[in-house]
Input
Amino acid sequence: MNYFKRDSLTLCAALLVAALLTAFISPVTASLRAADLPGPAREAIFHPVYARNGMVVSEEKHATEAGLNVLKEGGNAVDAAVTVGFVLAVTFPRAGNIGGGGFMLVRMAEKGEAVAIDYREKAPLAVTARTFLDEDGNVDTEKSRYSVLSAGVPGTVAGLALALEKYGTIPLERAMRPAIELAENGFPVSEGLAASLNDARLRMEKEPESMRVFFKEGGEAYAPGEILVQKDLAETLKLISENGSNAFYEGEIAVKIARFMKERGGLITEKDLEEYSAALREPVRGTYRGYEIYSMPPPSSGGVHLIEMLNVLEGFPLGEYGHNTARTINLMAEAMKFAYADRSEHLGDPDFKKVPVEALTSKEYAEKLRKRMSPGRVTPSVLVKPGKMPPGEGRNTTHFSVVDSAGNMVSNTYTLNFDYGSKITVPGTGILLNNEMDDFSMKPGEPNAYGLLGGQANAPEPEKRMLSSMTPTVVLKDGEPFLATGSPGGSLIITTVLQIITNVIDFGMNISEATNAPRVHHQWLPDKLRVERGISGDTLRLLTERGYTIDTSNTMGSAQSIMKKGEFLYGASDPRRPGGLAEGY
Ligand code: DON
Output
């Protein structure tokens, strides 16, 4: 930075390179000119989108635009978020959904109130410990990932309706209008949608209804730019818009879901749907170097372990050690191992087993963990055990963030689990069913699709919510909005959110730099340090010498964040998954 200040010629060259890089790497920011940017952003390599009043960041442009229109009309952040949630169910069907579930973190400015809306799916009443085991007692992943049994009772409609009722200002009919129009009249298929449907095709071919909805007659794929119309989904959305969430849980739609389940040997009944409700929960809270963190409590593991890791890292001067240096990555990886080991033992649905949230997120516990760490030290994962507590994640998900002019903040992550969930569409409804049941721990020692281990706390039980890693988070500074963030990525979600936060707080990055910077991940088991491309070879050599097994992986996560600094909101949609849009006004 100082170097830039000293040499204006170099500054111009750097800005030119930055503009070119930005144009290639992050198309959403390409229209910005460096000279337009407020003060500090001019020195940045990657420029965030900025605005003064309100902003929406999501993985799909129709969704961002629909949310932004609501803000411009005077709706608040929750109104816009509910609109985005329903639009993504139409335009981003690999993860946007009404047949899945998720979490919304809301922070209302006026009352200073933060709340977590839990609309995670629940296990059907008829589930047993053996539902997903074969005759020999082994986990049958066909059942837990690709059959009608893999679906939990969907929570999205209940969750979005509850958010709007409690914190919104517009009628459900207005919030759902853009989604209905896009389903009814269609929208041009993006490159990303075409590619993801191509990937899902083999599985979908076993499901005639999914083929009928997502492919042309005769099974031809939609090419980018062709119009995808979803008439059944439009009808389903209209019923919900006219009659509220009851239409989904008690009316015609519930009957169709239950009938289909019965025909196919699934478990979800009309009673399961009728008994489903979304829950309002207290967010988990923590502090990190003077910032206040609010994140998702159980049945997500995200918030608890985000705060656990931040507490551990707070004891080390990461800013001084440098971003993505061997010393910093070493400390982060060790903190991550402790957190994921604890996850395997202690986390589950709090309505079934008390989760030691306070202990895990306490500064004292972090101090104990820190005593086992020092820069340069690497503990093999076999020697890391879950901490003793006092009694008492090609797969897909999507995140969006909204901040309005009053300073209300929404951070929402929701999912079908895999791309297009189980790939099964309920006939006549346009509803894709999730395969979230795979997030339960089916058998001790057996990892789920994300390699995550678990125990009794996360064993399948009737009406229990399966443990999640989704980590919608808001951060405040001196009681004022600072950051709304979150990401998809299965087990990688928690560490992605961690690095967004450390990148802005410890390393002074703007939100685009923080989003674009290469990420690392360790989840205790397997004992591997995953790194994205872009971390220097020298750093990787030092880490290997210290004992890490390095796995250079595909990209990790897709953060969708808004940061407030001074009078401006800055947004970044992760370039790792192109097609997203950060837009403000
Ligand atoms: O709730 C969870 O943790 C997982 N079902 C999330 C899956 C996911 O993020 C896949 N995304 N890329």
Notes: The pocket of 6-diazenyl-5-OXO-L-norleucine is lined by residues 393, 395-397, 415, 417, 436, 439, 468-470, 488-490, 493 (CB under 6 Å). The two ends are 29 Å apart (CA to CA).
